[in-house]
Design goal:
By secondary structure, this protein is α/β, with parallel strands linked by helices. Helix content is about 45%, strand content about 10%. It has a six-stranded mixed beta sheet, sandwiched between helices. It has a two-stranded antiparallel sheet with strand order 2-3.
């Protein structure tokens, strides 16, 4: 095992073990709880990292079905952030983190493209692949742009939902029921993760309704269409471009998917909702205990009531990323922590730490 891989394993272990032992109110073990790594067994997720790499010869302007009786361009190149990072690469990296996380929990994950170099399919091809996958939910991952120059005024994430009704009865049923529900759950996950809803383009409370996006009008499984942020905005772009920021987006997307797939849990009792006090981050480096984790009060509305225990556990990783960054997480690991490796934490963090 390489040193970087060993470090990744150790970091995943202390995070997973620390969160598990310090937050019993979030995910207390029970005799009926599924075994670690099987929580999402039987669930299928289709991930569509938007756009495609540059190593292709397809005609992007070729007209394809738009799902509403017209046509539109097969594909677009996607935006480029202020520092020159292409959207297709950001989408790909976030999607891979989400895939790794979901697979580590037992889900079957299918994707629209196999890499970040070649072709990923026209918009109708991707919708067809999502529909044929029979997924419980499909998630199309994108980032937005409002200008080829700096746009400091427009910022934030949003979820695109289709104008209803959709001509296809099957697509209309999927998007008016599961699609809208999954999009709302994803919006709530993003808000809990600290992301602000977009303040432009008619977005209302993180949701934007549109009739010109072909994917939702052609997809017959529930679809979530995420615009993670505005690549023209300096602050949004900095998050989208960085490994730390991509991990934060991946955590928000993963928790949203988990909440939708597993549904709401029984609301916490007042005692369960209290803050769990544990060792400080410095102590965690030597004792294996986690930093303090705060759970949401039971009366906090959608941010508490619509969440699964598993997603709360996943979300508990966020304070470590915020405090230490991805590189800083290595400081929390010691050789003594290797035996504490958590299957759950490995799936989310091992890949990104090993790659740095």
């Amino acid at each position: 095992m390489t040193r970087s891989a060993l470090t990744a394993l150790m970091c995943a272990g202390i995070l997973g073990a620390g969160v598990l032992v310090s937050a019993p109110a979030i995910a207390a073990p029970s005799s009926t709880a599924p075994a670690a790594g099987t929580e999402l067994s039987g669930k299928t997720v289709f991930l569509d990292p938007g756009h495609q790499g540059t190593a292709h010869s397809e005609n992007l302007q070729r007209q394809v079905n738009d799902g509403r009786g017209g046509t539109k361009d097969c594909q677009t190149t996607g935006m480029t952030t202020l520092d020159g990072v292409p959207e297709h690469t950001i989408n790909w990296k976030v999607s891979e983190l989400v895939r790794s996380s979901l697979e580590s929990l037992g889900a079957t994950v299918k994707t629209s493209r196999a890499d970040d170099t070649g072709w990923g399919g026209c918009v109708d091809d991707r919708a067809r692949a999502a529909s044929e996958s029979g997924a419980d939910v499909a998630v199309s991952i994108h980032a937005d742009s409002t200008s080829t120059m700096t746009d400091a005024d427009k910022h934030g994430f949003h979820l695109i939902v289709p104008t209803l009704p959709i001509p296809s009865a099957a697509a209309d049923a999927a998007q008016s029921e599961g699609g809208r529900s999954a999009s709302t759950v994803m919006r709530d996950s993003y808000v809990r993760a600290g992301f602000e809803p977009a303040n432009y383009a008619g977005v209302e409370n993180g949701i934007q309704e549109r009739s010109d996006i072909a994917g939702p009008a052609l997809t017959t499984v529930p679809l979530v269409f995420v615009e993670m942020g505005n690549g023209s905005n300096p602050d949004d772009a900095a998050v989208l471009e960085s490994s730390d920021g991509q991990l934060k987006h991946a955590i928000a997307i993963s928790t949203g998917i988990i909440d939708y797939l597993l549904g709401a849990e029984t609301p916490s009792t007042p005692a369960d909702a209290a803050t769990t006090t544990a060792a400080t981050p410095a102590a965690a480096a030597t004792t294996g205990a986690a930093a303090p984790v705060t759970t949401a009060p039971s009366g906090a509305g959608p941010a508490a009531d619509g969440r699964s225990a598993l997603s709360r556990l996943l979300e508990s990783v966020s304070p470590y990323v915020n405090s230490f960054g991805v590189d800083g997480l290595e400081g929390l690991a010691t050789p003594d922590n290797v035996s504490s490796v958590s299957t759950f934490a490995q799936g989310l963090l091992k890949q990104i730490l090993a790659d740095r």
